Amino acid sequence: MRKITREIVFAFEHGITQKIDNSRTDGRSLWLFNNKIAEKNADGLWITNAGWKSKTTKERLNGLTGVRISQRRGQWYLNDIVWDGGWVRVADFNGEVEQVYNEVEFDVTCKLTGKFDTPIYSVFHTNTETALNGVEEALSREGIPSRRMESDTAGEWKPNYFVVVMPQDMEKANQILN
User: Do residue 84 and residue 44 come from a single domain?
Assistant: First the structure.
């Protein structure tokens, strides 16, 4: 397994936001070349090849716990079961109990400020979602888990995007970002 796969999968499986070369994760989803290839939620781990039967896609997916993709005569197999590459829950392809990842519990309580809700533990705000990437990377380097949020603006304002941290990480996150 390549180093990039090992590191990005570790971040994904541990709920850490990270971007490495052509792969990124927000700790809940995993992207390769801006194609979402994995997602974890209350139902477990879901994967897809996003229409790309490439060696890189196969390698990233094979790095995930419980995923074993092989190929015979051009046909992909997920845990020895024929798979077309579409979204599937991994637990449905392995006959065993799906590993449930421990999600970091963020307090996403909001307060109304003016015309939009502001998360109480927000450490960064912007109207451009891509501006969150650098903030999340800086926090991740310091071991601070974060989560993206979008406020409800009821169509009156531009979307408002926030980076939220755990209450105990507020002070350290603000020092890093200021």
Answer: yes
Tell me which of 66, 93, 120 is where a domain ends: 93
Task: Please check whether residues 10 and 81 belong to one and the same domain.
Answer: yes
Domain for residue 139, yes or no? Answer: yes
pLDDT tens by residue, 34-46: 999 999 988 889 9
DSSP string for 82-129:
E--SS-EEGGGGTSSPPPPP--------EEEETTEEEETTEEEEES-G
Asked whether residue 15 falls in the same domain as residue 81, the answer is yes
Q: Which of 93, 123, 155 is the last residue of a domain?
A: 93
Range of the domain at 153: 110-177
Kindly report the pTM of this predicted structure: 0.54
49: exposed, middle or buried (C-beta count within 10 Å: 0-12, 13-18, 19+)? Answer: buried
